[in-house]
């Protein structure tokens, strides 16, 4: 690179496929940023930032006789589509209302709520590992406390009731979609307006923080309405951590980070299943089982059964939050691939 009369031409040769197939300079900027180039590296190519360099690469790679593409028609607004994320929570509320007198109807509505949540949360991408690994933490959130309480009679009380958990997680689908969509639209607008990767990254981190704070505020508001805040601190933390974990999963999966989202869900589910296995093993007349389950039983006696999902989902959520803080402010995470949505 040093001493080259035209360093941009060499860069164009190295990224010929990217530049030739790009539909606009933003796609090239995202690809260069994903390959490790930064605004500082752009100075070696005699440009002030990565976006300016991408514009020159796009201009050089464009065919001289390329005809302008007709503008795509504006998508029609569908008001009902914005209300669809409320469907899982509405079905959960209906199932709880019908549970006392019509158990069969409550079971059908509960199953429909789970199916609706999967469709709403992962509708833009085919059901992948993240959609499947969400089932164990959800199942534990709904029935894990009762199972642990049965296996460990000395566990302290304080876990929120199943109704509060179901309503909170059911209605968590709405802010997950709304906040995620708001973040994606604002980040795409910043990508078009920013003149440097550093500027875009800093402003996108602020958007990410605002979206997550709004999501947390919604979770706490639904818990308050459902009576879940009357539980212990560990109980409130368990439901909040489970909701935050699901929200981060949706956010990461929507930006091409489905593997990381699935890994976070799988780790939370593994910790919860391990806790159930240890509590069950304590009943077996085998050497060493009581000692292995001792720390768990002491935790349950001190903090209650809600401590297990609080630690499992909270730890996984913190790991996904750290990953999101690194991955989502990158330009490559916000440029839709060709042919994509």
From TrEMBL:
<feature type="transmembrane region" description="Helical">
    <location>
        <begin position="206"/>
        <end position="226"/>
    </location>
</feature>
<protein>
    <recommendedName>
        <fullName>Integral membrane protein</fullName>
    </recommendedName>
</protein>
<keyword id="KW-0812">Transmembrane</keyword>
<keyword id="KW-1133">Transmembrane helix</keyword>
<feature type="transmembrane region" description="Helical">
    <location>
        <begin position="164"/>
        <end position="185"/>
    </location>
</feature>
<keyword id="KW-0472">Membrane</keyword>
<feature type="transmembrane region" description="Helical">
    <location>
        <begin position="261"/>
        <end position="284"/>
    </location>
</feature>
<feature type="transmembrane region" description="Helical">
    <location>
        <begin position="296"/>
        <end position="321"/>
    </location>
</feature>
<feature type="transmembrane region" description="Helical">
    <location>
        <begin position="133"/>
        <end position="152"/>
    </location>
</feature>
<feature type="transmembrane region" description="Helical">
    <location>
        <begin position="232"/>
        <end position="254"/>
    </location>
</feature>
<feature type="transmembrane region" description="Helical">
    <location>
        <begin position="104"/>
        <end position="121"/>
    </location>
</feature>
């Amino acid at each position: 690179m040093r001493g080259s009369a035209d360093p941009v031409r060499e860069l164009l040769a190295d990224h010929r496929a990217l530049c030739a197939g790009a539909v606009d300079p933003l796609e090239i900027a995202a690809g260069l940023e994903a390959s490790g180039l930064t605004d500082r590296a752009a100075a070696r190519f005699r440009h002030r930032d990565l976006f300016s360099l991408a514009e020159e690469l796009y201009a050089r790679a464009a065919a001289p006789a390329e005809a302008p593409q007709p503008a795509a028609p504006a998508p029609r607004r569908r008001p009902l589509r914005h209300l669809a994320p409320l469907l899982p929570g509405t079905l959960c509320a209906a199932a709880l209302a019908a549970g006392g007198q019509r158990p069969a109807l409550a079971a059908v509505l509960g199953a429909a709520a789970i199916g609706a949540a999967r469709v709403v949360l992962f509708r833009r991408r085919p059901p992948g590992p993240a959609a499947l690994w969400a089932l164990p933490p959800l199942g534990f959130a709904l029935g894990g406390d009762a199972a642990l309480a049965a296996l460990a009679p000395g566990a302290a009380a304080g876990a929120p009731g199943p109704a509060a958990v179901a309503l909170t997680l059911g209605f968590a689908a709405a802010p997950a979609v709304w906040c995620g969509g708001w973040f994606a639209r604002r980040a795409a607008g910043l990508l078009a307006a920013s003149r440097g990767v550093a500027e875009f990254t800093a402003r996108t981190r602020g958007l990410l923080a605002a979206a997550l704070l709004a999501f947390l505020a919604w979770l706490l508001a639904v818990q308050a309405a459902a009576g879940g805040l009357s539980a212990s601190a560990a109980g409130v933390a368990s439901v909040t951590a489970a909701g935050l974990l699901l929200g981060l999963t949706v956010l990461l999966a929507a930006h091409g980070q489905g593997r990381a989202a699935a890994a976070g869900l799988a780790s939370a589910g593994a910790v919860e299943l391990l806790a159930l296995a240890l509590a069950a093993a304590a009943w077996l007349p085998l050497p060493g089982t009581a000692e292995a389950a001792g720390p768990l039983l002491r935790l349950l006696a001190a903090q209650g059964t809600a401590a297990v999902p609080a630690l499992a989902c909270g730890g996984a959520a913190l790991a996904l939050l750290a990953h999101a803080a690194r991955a989502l402010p990158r330009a490559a995470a916000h440029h839709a691939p060709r042919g994509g949505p």
